[in-house]
């Protein structure tokens, strides 16, 4: 169970980072 929780935490972290990057890039595209 410990490794499973760690995998989920890593997945959430990556998803959050991607979402933040995506939001920033989307704003950049809308600005131009």
Integer average pLDDT? 85
How many DSSP helices?
A: 1
Task: Report the uncertain regions.
Answer: none
**What is the β-strand count?**
0
Estimate percent helicity.
over 70%
Report the radius of gyration as a whole number of Å.
14 Å
The major pleated sheet works out as: none
User: Cα distance, first to last residue?
Assistant: 47 Å
The shape is rod-shaped
* Estimated share of beta-strand residues: under 5%
Q: From N to C, what is the helix and strand string?
A: H
Provide the structure class.
mainly alpha
What does this structure look like?
The protein is mainly α and 32 residues long. It contains 1 helix and no strands. The radius of gyration is 14 Å and the shape is rod-shaped.
Topology:
Layout lengths: L1 H30 L1
Short description:
With 32 residues, this protein is mostly helical. It has one helix spanning 2-31.
Which key phrases capture this entry?
single chain; 32 residues; mainly alpha; 0% strand
């Amino acid at each position: 169970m410990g490794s499973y929780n760690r995998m989920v935490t890593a997945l959430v972290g990556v998803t959050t980072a991607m979402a933040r990057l995506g939001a920033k890039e989307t704003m950049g595209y809308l600005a131009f």
